Amino acid sequence: MKAVITVVGVDRTGIIAAVSNIMAENQVNILTINQVILDNIFNMAMIVDLENSAVDLNGLQQLLKEKGDQLGVEIRAQNMEIFNAMHRIG
Amino acid sequence: MLTIHDILETNQMIQKNNLDVRTITMGISLLDCCSSDGKTLCRNIYDKITRYGEHLVQTGNDIGNEFGVPIINKRVAVTPISIVAACSDLTDYVSVAQTLDKAAKEIGIDFIGGFSALVERGYTEGDRKLLASIPEALATTDLVCSSVAVGSTKAGINMDAVAEMGRIFKTLGELTKEHDALGCAKLVVFSNPVEDNPFMAGAFHGVTQGDSCVSVGVSGPGVVKRALESVKGEPFDVVAETIKKTAFKITRVGQLVAQEASRRLNVPFGIIDLSLAPTPAVGDSVAAILEEMGLESCGACGTTAALALLNDAVKKGGLMASSRVGGLSGAFIPVSEDKGMIEAVERGSLSLEKLEAMTCVCSVGLDMIAVPGDTSAATISAIIADEAAIGMINNKTTAVRVIPVPGKTVGDVVEFGGLLGHAPIIAVNTFRNDEFIARGGRIPAPMRSLTN
C-alpha cells in the first residue's frame, strides 16, 4: 500500500529528518517528498510505500502521532487512494 | 502524479471544511425472517441483523482511519416492517421495534430504519398495525426510525393516511414531551419514497432490493461554501461550474469509501446518495451556501432560485464521480440541523411557507421543523398533504418531519442534541383545515401531460 504522510505546523529544523528516521527504522520506502510554506505554515507531503515495511498503516500512524506531539506539528498518514480518487481520473 | 497542493486541498476539505462521509448504511432484507409466531419473527430479525451487521461499525471505523476521512454514522435499513410482520400473530408491532433497537445496540450502529409502511394506495392489516404502533414504538426505543409513504405520482395521495399521520405526530410528541417531542425527529412521511435511501429517518430496504447492500451518503456543504468564496461576484455559470467540480471531488471520496466497505464486508455496493447534508457545526451549512451566492439571509427572495442551481449542480457533478447514484440525491434543508437555517428562522427571514417553496426544487422536504405545541393534528396533516402534493405533481420525493413540541410556542427554542441540533419554534398558519382533512379518501394520481 502507498500512503501519504503530511506534516503541517510551524517550521523548525529537523522535521523532515525526524519523519524520515521513522520511515528508515520501519523499512518504509520514501518515494517522493514535497514541501511548501503557505501563510507562514510549513506543509510537507511525503509519498511512501509500505509494501515491505515492518509496520502497517495503523502502526505508522501511531508512531507519527507521537513524533508530531513531540515536535509540535500535526502529522497524518493516509492511504494514498483517497487523494487519487479525488484528483485523478482513470 | 499527485501534487502537494492536491494533497493539501483534500486535507483542508476534511479538517477545515467538514468534509465527511455522513453514513455507511447497510440494507438488509428481512423477507426471509417472516414467521406466523411473533416471538420467532423477532428472533429471526435479531439474528439476521446482528449476523449481517456484526462488522459494520468496525469496518466503517477502519476505513475512516485508513483514509483519514470521518465516517460519522453507521446505519442499517431493513425491509418495511409492515410487510415483514404481516403474517405474524402479533397484534401490534412495538415488540418488533424493540427488537430492531436491541439488534442495533448490539452491533453498535447509530440508527436503524425501516419501521415503515407504504400505504399510497391503501392499508393492509400489517400497515394498520404498524401505523398504530408508531407512537409507542418510537417512544420506547432509541435508535429506531420510522417512515410512512402516503402518496406518489403514480398513486395519488391517500388522505386517510395523511389524516392519521397528523394524529400520530401529535401523540408521539405528547409521549416524548419530556425530551421536547424528540420521538417526532425519528418519523418521516413521504410522497414518492425511494427504496435505496441511506439517510434517516427515511431509510428502508425496499422489496425490489437484493438480500443486502451497502450504500453511502456523502456530505460537504462546508466544502461547497468554501469553493464559492473564491468566485465572489462571478456570474452564475461560474457558480454552477464551481459547485459541479466540488461535488465531483466530494463524491469521489464517497465512491471510494463505498467500494471499500462493499469489498471488506463482502456485500454488494448499493448506491451513492449525492445529498449535501448539513450539520449544526459551524461551516457545515446549506443555508450558508445560498447566502454565499449573494443573499443577505436564507429565505430572502431569490433563495428558491439559488437552491435550484445548487441542487442541480451537485447532481451533475456527483453523477460523473460515481458508478451508481440513487437515494434522495439533493440538498437537504433540515432546519434544526443547519446552523444557517436556524439563524435565518431566528432573524425572521425564513418562514414555513418559504421552506415549502424551497422543497419544490430540492430534496427532500419540510425537515426537522419544530412547530408550536398547540398546532392541531389536522393542521399537521394539511402540511403533510401540501408537501405530498408537491412531490406528486413534480414527480419527486418530498417528505415531512415536523415536531409539534408540547408547551412550546413561537419564540421558544428546543434542543435535540447531536446531529439533530436545536430549533426555534416556527410560526404555522393558524386558519383551520379540520373539514378538509376530515374528508379522507384519495386525491387521484395526476396526469403527466399538459404539465403547466
From TrEMBL, chain A:
Pfam families: ACT_6. Residues 4-78 form the ACT domain. CDD domains: ACT_1ZPV. It comes from the Bacteria. Gene3D superfamilies: 3.30.70.260. NCBIfam families: PRK00194.1 (NF001220). Belongs to the UPF0237 family. This is UPF0237 protein H8J70_04175. It comes from Megasphaera hominis.
TrEMBL record, chain B:
Gene3D superfamilies: 3.20.70.20. InterPro entries: UPF0210. It comes from the Bacteria. Pfam families: DUF711. CDD domains: RNR_PFL_like_DUF711. Belongs to the UPF0210 family. Homodimer. This is UPF0210 protein H8J70_04180. It comes from Megasphaera hominis.
